[in-house]
TrEMBL record:
Keywords: Oxidoreductase
InterPro entries named in the record: 6PGD_dom2, 6PGDH_NADP-bd, HIBADH-related, HIBADH-related_NP60_sf, NAD(P)-bd_dom_sf, RedAm-like_C
Protein name (record): NAD(P)-dependent oxidoreductase
PANTHER family tied to this protein: CYTOKINE-LIKE NUCLEAR FACTOR N-PAC, OXIDOREDUCTASE GLYR1-RELATED
Annotated ranges, domain 6-phosphogluconate dehydrogenase NADP-binding: 6-154
Any one Pfam family match given in the protein's UniProt record, by short name: NAD_binding_2
The UniProt record lists the keyword Cytoplasm: no
Annotated ranges, domain NADPH-dependent reductive aminase-like C-terminal: 161-285
Gene3D superfamilies xrefs: N-(1-d-carboxylethyl)-l-norvaline Dehydrogenase, domain 2, NAD(P)-binding Rossmann-like Domain
Family, similarity comment: Belongs to the HIBADH-related family.
GO molecular function, one term: oxidoreductase activity
Amino acid sequence: MTNASITVLGLGAMGSAITARLRETGYDTTVWNRTAAKTEPHVEAGSRAAPTVAEAIKTGDFVLVVLLDHASVREQLEPVADALKEKVVINLTTTTPNESRATAAWAAEHGIAYLDGAIMAVPEMIGGPGSRLLYSGDENAYAIARTILETLGTADYEGTDAGLASLKDMALLSAMDLMFTGYVQAIAMMRTVGVSAYDTAEEVQAWLGAMLPHGRGLAEIIDGRTYETGGQSADFTRAAQASMITASREQGIRADLLEPHLKLLNELAATGRGGKDWLAIIELLTIK
Ligand code: FVH
């Protein structure tokens, strides 16, 4: 399908990397960007530039949207809804699951084939071995676009609910965020005795590397839902968590990043579940 024409809307860091990869793999590319100057290097490299979104989508069978956020996507796509009817629209912009579902519903109302995507990679990784992109929504659109999408990285289709790709994106980013804020806490604590960030990061990496294989065991306990386990109880973990918080403060370091976990453990104890596995905090996370 290298004779397919692809329009890319948005030439920020990610849109540029995607356009470059599509060109390298032989696709005919038309680009549009709000700030027109960003199209110039792409034109020099062989893409076609269009002055408006409406012009840009005329030449593409596939329209890849790589804008800042949900609002910018809707701002640019809504005025050209009729012209998108003949196209497959793939939105790679980061959005929340409900924003993805709303755009999918809007697309369905207008008869537009729409696939929502989430990019689990940074621009330099696009097209390389570690690049992974998630997709959800119109299954037929995925089947038609699949060959193109596989040039950007591993392509995983998550299901027909258009919010699924962004939900997994947000879940994985949440895990990454909590892990890296853990690095920051450890580095802040060790810096108080003159240890460099580099050295603590090495230590954290080795420690987490040893601990990560236990993740699957945690999942088994959670799937069992009884939380009757020989593992770490909430009460045990409360004591450990309180020590970490006290140690931070003794070193003159705020414990704001640690406190939310202790708050949940305290809630378990206050509701008579201190003897349960600490993983029972997951049952407190559902907003009622
Ligand atoms: N860069 C990354 O590492 C991450 C990896 C994971 C996925 N994200 C998401 O990808 C989307 C694009 O990110 P980006 O890195 O390309 O972002 P920027 O370089 O900041 O470029 C933003 C582009 O959006 C255009 N834009 C912003 N607002 C509007 C608007 N109202 N109308 C039209 N275009 C708009 C902006 O245009 P300009 O400022 O150059 O005129 C850029 O083309 C994003 O969802 C990430 O979360 C990337």
